[in-house]
Amino acid sequence: QVQLVESGGGLVQPGGSLRLSCRVSGFSLDYYVVAWFRQAPGKEREAVSSVSVSEGSTYYSSSVKGRFAISADNAKNTVYLQMNSLKIEDTAVYYCARTARYFAASFSAADYDYWGQGTQVTVSS
């Protein structure tokens, strides 16, 4: 069974850092792309970052480029999202999701077939 479980969310002050983890099971990171999405109250779900192990590529939204870093650890079946210089507007529920390798460059939520339950990130002073 395919499963993605996020962890690492919490409360952090502006300028702080958090590292989110997405532990996956039921599939290999060698054959699927994993992305991070986020959804703030009253807003649409938006793509944040994705990693394709097979392509050796990563993608970032403009809003997080230079602040966030995505990585994949095949041995641990885990994808990480290191979030630095956090801003209040980064507050959201963060989800990890998977898609096929040929959608590696996709930031469309519709292309992702399995999702985690989400982890809350709150950036507040």
Based on the model shown, name its key terms.
125 residues; mainly beta; 11 strands
Structure write-up:
- There is one protein chain.
- The protein is an all-beta fold and about 120 residues long.
- The protein is built from no helices and eleven strands.
- It has strands spanning about 5, 10, 20-25, 30-40, 45-50, 55-60, 70-75, 80-85, 90-100, 115, 120-125.
- The strands form two sheets. Strands 2, 4, 5, 6, 9, 10 and 11 form a seven-stranded mixed beta sheet that branches. It has a four-stranded antiparallel beta sheet with strand order 1-3-8-7, with no helix packed on it.
- The mean pLDDT is about 95.
Q: Output the helix-strand order.
A: EEEEEEEEEEE
Portion in beta strands? over 45%
- Gyration radius (Cα, Å) is 13 Å
Question: Percent range for helical residues?
Answer: under 10%
Low-confidence runs (pLDDT<50, min 5 residues)? Answer: none
What is the number of E strands? 11
Distance between the termini: 40 Å
Helix/strand class: mainly beta
Sheet of most strands: 7 strands, mixed
Helix count, DSSP H or I runs of 4 or more residues: 0
Principal-axis shape equals globular
Mean pLDDT: 96
Secondary-structure map with pairings?
Elements: E1 3-7, E2 10-12, E3 18-25, E4 32-39, E5 46-52, E6 57-60, E7 68-73, E8 78-83, E9 92-100, E10 114-115, E11 119-123
Parallel strand pairs: 2-11
Antiparallel strand pairs: 1-3, 3-8, 4-5, 4-9, 5-6, 7-8, 9-10, 9-11
